[in-house]
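SEQUENCE-TO-STRUCTURE ENTRY
===========================
What this section holds: a protein sequence and its matching fold, both as plain text.
Tokens: labelled as protein backbone structure tokens, with as many entries as the chain has residues.
Question of interest: how does this chain fold, as expressed in backbone structure tokens?
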Amino acid sequence: MNELTEGRPGQRLLMMGNQAIARGALEAGVSVAAGYPGTPSSEIIENLAGVAAAAGIYVEWSVNEKVAAEVAAAASFAGLRSLCVMKQNGVNVASDFLLHLAGGGTRGGMVLVPCDDPGALSSINEGESRHFARLLEIPLLEPGDFQEAKDMIKWAFELSEQIGNLVMVRSVTRLSHASGNVELGPMPDFRPKARFRHTGFILDPRQGAVSSAPVAYKHDLQQQKLEKAQDAFENALFNTYTGPENPELLVITASACNLYCREAIEILGLSDRAGLLKLATTWPLPNNLVGRYLEKTGRVLIVEEVIPFLEENIKILAAELALEIGAKTIHAKRDKTLPSVGEMHPDHVIAALAKIFDLSYEAVSADYTEKAGLCVLAGAPGRDLTFCPGCPHRASYWILHNVLALDNREGFVCGDIGCYSLGMRETGYFSLKTMHAMGSGTGLASGFGKLGPFGMDQSIVAVSGDSTFFHAVMPALVNAVHYNADITLVVFDNSGTAMTGFQPHPGLETDAMGQSAPAVDIEAVCRALGAQTTVCDPFEMDQTRDILLEKVSGKNGVQVVIMRRACALSPARRGRPEYEMYLDPQICIGENCGCNKLCTRVFKCPGLNWDDQNRCARIDEVICAGCGVCASVCPAGAITRKKRT
């Protein structure tokens, strides 16, 4: 049974936050869902894609977040309810269109769900999406537990249709990826029919053309919609207060921080002294509601992730109401009571409360960390973050590193987001020298490639994943070709969006719902754009090295090398080693001469370990993926491979 579609109303189930969000969308009668993979958001679309046929909905992994927003908006314009999902960085990608969409409005309910990553647990930044709600001038909702993660989605659709505009529901990692009990509601028993009505008067929001123009009229209307949402927020059932009538301290919080605050207050036994105002409607603030609770106390603690968005808005409100409610002492991030980086957790809140109430509290004994450090598995090798056994990226970076050394011009590699971001670390031989947004590696390389007249003679390489190629590399590649930049683009084509769970992309022959789809050939696209293009296999190391060295050494405009090899963990290859691997300890010279443990000291595949007792390398048969690459790396020929039949 799939509980997303077959769970009974009133049934209580343990659900991941993202699963609860998906169920909420189904209960709301969503028809179209679109997104781009990005942790911690990916499971929302994954769950909806898995039940698309049963639920009668359309689900897609769009080429990027901007297109996902456009696909979802089209459904809204046709009168359907639609969901758009992305991680925090994706809102930036989609913001160009979202600014227009918020200005022009929606028809069928449309909900934007960005999932932020406080602490950057699976990102290279912890930028947050809340500021986009203020920039776009749209309502912002933040569920505070798993039940709300489901219920609030349905309410967001209703609010969207009530005001005729986009509504943002923000999640965070500890809500999206944790699990809790959720009581299911009823599923709709109807399927709406799509119809885009466009023949009415241009200013008719339901029958006319859709546009953010004329700006003066539409912007004023947009702000009226926001005021309408603010009125609805004043009585929203998702805003809750627990605690004494007149607390010594009012704690105001939102999102997953609600759980941390509840735990901290309980642990310190402050339930009769501290009140907790949990806000679900965080932009615009329900001014009357917040003002009433501010009036009841003289001190306030604001707990949020990551930067002081809620704090600043509450302080503005407190200043506006100062003559009515009196001056307040507000503790939060700006006075350093709470940190302004990283994710929040109960210990942070406990420390803040203990300081404010002058309490002494020790979470763990002083020697806990020291004792914990002793609890190490005996014999487990210490490792930095590393590529998986059999990962083609390790072979690709090995080749890149050696080619740039052979080229001997202090060449460098520009990259961006993906598994291959680890190219900045030891596992990628420190090859990657720039890492920013998706597609930025190629864009930066394009810029570097035009600096020849200023004396730059270094070889310039950009790397990209196959999913990233479609997401954001193509425009940068067009730019590089048009301006004849001297660069080499290496596409690490591992046949899927590996970092976030092997979601399909336009280069594959399947879509998000598992149906057949025409694949877009990366090689053909590059050739059509005017780039000289070669396809090779990074596991054929000598041949690929020679090809790449030729490309890097010349100054012939844009060269593209597609290193194509499926990820070792992909559904196509998982559990199917290509080779049986053998290591002859009699041949392995290890630390005695020559290579000085090259395979375990430098190449460092997790499937290879150094055997201190026998003073030679050994193959870990449990971990080894049977890719065969280490046989090409060993200079002594101690490692051999045999093709599996």
